[in-house]
Amino acid sequence: MCYKFLLLILLPALAYGNVKIKIKGNKNITDASVQFSGKEKAIISEEERQAFQLDDESLKRASKIFSGKRCTDVFLKRPTPWEDVYRKFGWKEIKRTLKPVQARIIGINVKPVAIATAEYKNNQTAYTVKHKAAVKQTVEETVTHTWNKSKELTIGKDFSYTIHFGKGNTGGKISLSHTSKWGNDTTKERKITIGTKSSVEVPPGDGVLATLVATQVTMEIEVEYEVTVAGHVFCNYQNGYRGHQWWAYPLWLLQKDGSLPTLVKSSERISIGFYTNMRIELSDLETGAVVKTVDAQIIKVLDFDKN
User: Fold this and answer.
1) pTM above 0.70?
2) Among residues 87, 171, 191, 283, which one has the fewest Cβ atoms lying within 10 Å of its Cβ?
3) In the chain, what is the greatest distance between 2 CA atoms, to the nearest angstrom?
4) Closest CA to 267 of 152, 103, 157, 108
5) How far apart are CA 181 and CA 196, in angstroms?
6) What was the pLDDT predicted at 171?
7) Which runs of consecutive H residues, i.e. helices, occur in 39-172?
8) How many other CB atoms are there within 10 angstroms of residue 212's CB atom?
């Protein structure tokens, strides 16, 4: 049996851009692929300076190796004790860029589950009884984010995740959305009520078992990120250097000559638990033979961050 779905995790435009991670299955749940694009930029924080070892002493030492003379002061961004030199000379403040570089599905577990049952009997001996078979049950769907990252990285943005499973056997779409702060280990839960109604005719002395069944899916996704820094380091030479007091050096040159790290990696593990292919199976109470199947639907949703 095929379960067509589309899963979209969207990290919207925050400071300067956005990150999109798209998981798509064309044929069935186990045939899925992951695509990603975008980046998120911001002026480097003091904590992120530590992650890249961009302390004053390391940069001053690198300035001497690069230029031949050690500078007196270094700055990576506004403000400075002097005028706005970054704006005046068109220098670029040091910015941190986060982008996904690899994403993959590392595990998918699919299993059919019986969520709820109800019995309908006909104790009459002479005529058939028509019942309204109504079965519903509330279950939980979850999204868990687990991070492996440098403690100095301070992205600290609320990224919005929209998880969308396209139209399948449920007669509609299954959508999950929530926000989660980048770098924070979190588990988001929502409650959904699944069910439907169907008429069933029960012969004399017979019985019908209505079973609410669904496919329970657990999907594990791993996303790898790279964080880089770029821009100009403002160096102040108190006694001047080659006729000038202020110099701006491309950061990558100081990183190279100072043997400073140019890349910090992090990864995110996303675990998604959801239900699809929901239906009610009507079966003979004595033989167990299925006599009728009716698609079920999500009747009520208590969404993430609201329960």
Assistant:
1) yes
2) 87
3) 111
4) 103
5) 36
6) 35
7) 46-51, 56-67, 85-89
8) 22
